[in-house]
Design brief:
The protein is α+β, with helices and mostly antiparallel strands. The chain has helices at 3-9, 12-25, 31-38, 48-62, 67-77, 89-98, 103-113, 124-129, 131-141, 147-155, 168-172, 178-184, 190-206, 208-218, 224-233, 235-239, 243-248, and strands spanning 257-264, 268-270, 274-283, 289-300, 306-318, 323-331, 343-351, 354-364. Helix 2 crosses helix 5 (67-77) and helix 10 (147-155) packs parallel to helix 13. The two termini are 29 Å apart.
Amino acid sequence: MPDALKDTLYQRPLVEDMAAVLGSIEPSFAADAFLRQVYDDGWEGRALKERMRHITLALRDHLPPDYRAALAVLTQAAPRLNRHGFLLLSFCDFVEQYGLDDWDASLPALELLTPLMSAEFAVRPFIVRDTPRMMAQMLVWSRHENEHVRRLSSEGCRPRLPWAMALPDFKRDPSPILPVLENLKDDPSEFVRRSVANNLNDIAKDNPEVVIDVLRRWNADASPERGWIIRRALRTLVKAGHNEALALLGFDGGAAVSVKNLTLSADSVRFGDALAFSFEVESLADEPQKLVVDYVVHFQKANGALAPKVFKLAQRSIQPGETLRFQKQVSFRPISTRVYYPGEHALSLKINGQMYEDKRFTLVMDDAG
């Protein structure tokens, strides 16, 4: 996580305000000592989530030793700190760290906290501890009047939730998740529907046949909103050229087309710049076709091998004999989620899951001349 973001989310005045609110509720809470513990010699070097956990540990040292008494202070303080956003993750983390043996207090606290700052990370140890019991609670939450609580019921049980502890049992068997998603498939909140789609997309990476079966059923009488869930839930399978996913969206695998004139703007690109490309797609069919057009960048890895990464480009209809023209740029600016290596790369095209010709180019790094 970039330093600028962790410093923005954990600005000292916000932490000081949190300490002051806690001190106003609990007379034994020593705000000054708490702040000294938080801002110790290691604070600057801690990453974003490390700072969250560090604050959680400091809260444990300065709140009442009884868990329920400490939780009462946090739940009273949270509504007064709702503009502090990310800081309240430490309140959810407190429940995660110290409340696993007191479900009767912890689950209502997470329900209260999640509208202020999502408890999606905090619920996962409860799922691991007792899956049937926690998924029964998630099913109850999926019918809650508050959209944030309903979203928690889906987001918290995603098999591959970023930044979160793994749920390997759900990667093997996602069936406990499906009743929750069933309740939410027509949720009035886009916030919730997006989580449903992301959860299904997670499941599709390990159990594509489960997702295809669910979405084929959902597609039978789909509203526009549910149709959006279906398209988003299938995005990984569509990128992979999964024939049943493509068919569910109305795209035929192996489109009858010819790709012509794939052209790169240069044979090499310098790190930090962009490489433009263009190409044409000609229909060879006697009937109209729906196309999913992606491009694939084959990035150089540390061992010299090329690793493909699929990027979405367009979804278009093409008439018999028609030629469509496309152009795009590939950026090689620095990003936190990718390490670039100099040398040969490649760019290829993928249409309805079928790969087409590639063009080679070289990435030049400043230190490589």
